[in-house]
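ZP: hey, is the (3R)-3-hydroxy-L-norvaline complex queued? I don't see it on the tracker
AM: it wasn't, my bad. submitting now with these inputs:
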Amino acid sequence: MSEKILVTGALGQIGSDLIPKLQKKYGKENIISLDYNELPDDYDGILKKGDVRDKKILEDLWKEYKFTKVYHLASLLSATGEKHPDLAWDVNMTGLKHVLDISKEYDTQVFWASSIAVFGSTTPLDNTPQHTILEPVTIYGVTKVSGELLCQYYHEKYGLDVRSIRYPGLISWKQEPGGGTTDYAVDIFYKAIEEEEYTCFVKEDTKLPMMYMEDAIRGTLMLMDADEEDINVRTSYNHSALSFTAKELEDEIKKHIPDFEVKYEPDERQKTADSWPNTIDDSAAREDWGWEHEYDLERMTEVMLENLRKKLSK
Ligand code: VAH
């Protein structure tokens, strides 16, 4: 039987890169994209408009397509969540509960996006362990800790095959930055090309775990393809590639754009960034399902600038 796959949050940063990879792997006709935003006229695939908080919309899609897998990406991110905490709780938690409940009914394999936002300032921030203190300072982080425990519950109680990754900051060029604290590391590339100057909203010595999107998508598909007996973490896997400070990123970009200037004017997002790890121990993912990253800072910077120059036709 061919796979039928639903991707929620389809027009977001991860969805925009994941869906073409899924279409190539399973066939466009087997990938159903769902998003609550206005639908673009030129979408290359099957795209439905809908809010993941509306259970009937989800149930009707499952009745029609009998999904074998769902990638549940729909979520408000950290910075947006702090501006709209009630909405963040509603979208992030109600949406996940609906997806888990319906997937249980249809025996759908579930991928759900967690985040390093589950960690807080009481977590060991260097080489952060897989199992550790989770006391996040953002509503986004609270929804991700709650979501991880909900996923583990649905696996333990109902045997649902739900798998998850704690994504670090993700760097990509297909989708504009979308309300994340780590999105300074995406925005900076656009500004380097378009204006050769950037005002950064975190301090220059802010060090965060980051990953180029190609690595994140490859890791996501590796996790979903892994043998079930190899999955030993049913909250969410630590998943990492590199860590860098904002200044290190500035200096790497300057190797390509020597006149690029960055001013550092930290705002309210600095408090969130300070509560997140500097580096992550992702040995569990590497041991359980063979994770290894391929992009370092130098290669990521090259690829980002090359693709953004084409996208911005500069
Ligand atoms: C955010 N990019 O900044 C997201 C991510 C690691 C953080 O979840 O909110």
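AM: back. The pocket of (3R)-3-hydroxy-L-norvaline is lined by residues 77-78, 115-117, 140, 167-170, 180-183 (CB under 6 Å).
ZP: great, adding it to the tracker
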